[in-house]
Amino acid sequence: MKRILSLIAAAVIGGLLVLGGNYYLNPGANPISSDDNFSQEVKNINVSAANGVAPLDFTGAAEKAMPAVVHISAEGAAAKRQSSGDPFFDFFGNFRNQGPQRGTGSGVIYTSDGYIITNNHVVDFAEKVEVTLNDNRKFVAEVVGTYPKADIAVLKVEGANLPIMRTADSDLAKVGQWVLAVGNPFNLNSTVTAGIVSALGRDINIIQSQQRDAIESFIQTDAAVNPGNSGGALVDAQGRLLGINTAISTRTGSFEGYSFAIPINLAKRIADDIIENGSYQRPYLGVSIVELDDEYAQELGVDVSQGVVIENLVDGGSAQFAGMLPKDVIVAVDGKKIRSVPELQEAIGRSNVGDTLDMQVIRRGKRQDIPVRLKAG
């Protein structure tokens, strides 16, 4: 018995010596405090999120975004349209063949005094619009203005000190980054889903099928969105507004893998014009264009396979006035690479009439910069 007690005592003393030595050598460490270890893990998560790395959860981002996303209920005297059955279509809600047209969607509070951004297709038929905030306050909303060619609408409610969220720079969006979709699918308020950005600059021909010269340069994500999410927020991991959710790719009417959002840089530009002027003053380059591919690049003798080729110039247009020529290949605007027609349309659409853009083109195999002052269409 004495021998056993001696062994136990020796083990206890040895353990204490190890712990004491560890504390002496690492005075900042506390190996037996699980709470401290958890706190350090939380700190590491927060640092990762700040650096754009996926956090373990999105509670912080959701808490910032949810108060600024509203539920929209719209009513019109008679139905004007129905879903065409196209696999790429808007996801506003159910349309009726007869009687009043009703639907629900989402919106994002843009200014604390009551301006709200949503999709044009959410309110294009409406005679009466009601907005419900995350805290259940209800407002009658006025449609201030719309721009169907980008599917943007601006509403106004009479409010003050309304919750808003910071906006991100959608030009800095990266494929693979985490995002949240915040909205009101199936008339369910304040729903948050998560996914990643799966592509940028997507043109799915959803707006162009109904509007000539439409601007389509969507952020594509795999965050689940459904009917009623239209006009809601696409949010980054820091809780900043990255885009306005607009459409889904589906054959059933519900989410099947991909959703599409208008980049917030473009949405802000249009909304600001509508708020200040009552309508969007769109600048035009004055060209007909096609996308460059490898075969066309070889024909033109250029060393790139992505860009936009000018086919024809509009007489008196911005491009002609600046000295651009047919077969010029536009590869950058103000230092940002241009790889596709949607990217060029977005770059022009985000600019103001009267702005001068630095267009980098390849002409006869040589690069050159051409300043182009934008005119109204």
Explain what this protein looks like in three dimensions.
This protein is α+β, with helices and mostly antiparallel strands and 377 residues long. It has two domains: 224 residues, Thrombin, subunit H (Beta Barrel), CATH 2.40.10.120; 94 residues, PDZ domain (Pdz3 Domain), CATH 2.30.42. The protein has eight helices and 21 strands. The strands form four sheets. A six-stranded antiparallel beta barrel has the order 1-3-4-7-6-5. The radius of gyration is 27 Å and the shape is globular. The termini are far apart.
Compile the SSE list and pairings.
Blueprint: H1 2-25, H2 34-50, H3 59-65, E1 69-76, E2 88-90, E3 101-109, E4 115-118, H4 120-123, E5 128-132, E6 138-147, E7 152-156, E8 178-183, E9 191-202, E10 218-221, E11 233-236, E12 241-249, E13 258-263, H5 264-277, E14 283-284, E15 287-291, H6 294-300, E16 308-313, H7 318-322, E17 329-333, E18 336-337, H8 341-349, E19 356-363, E20 366-373, E21 375-376
Antiparallel strand pairs: 1-3, 1-5, 2-12, 3-4, 4-7, 5-6, 6-7, 8-9, 8-11, 9-10, 10-13, 11-12, 12-13, 14-21, 15-16, 16-17, 17-18, 17-19, 19-20
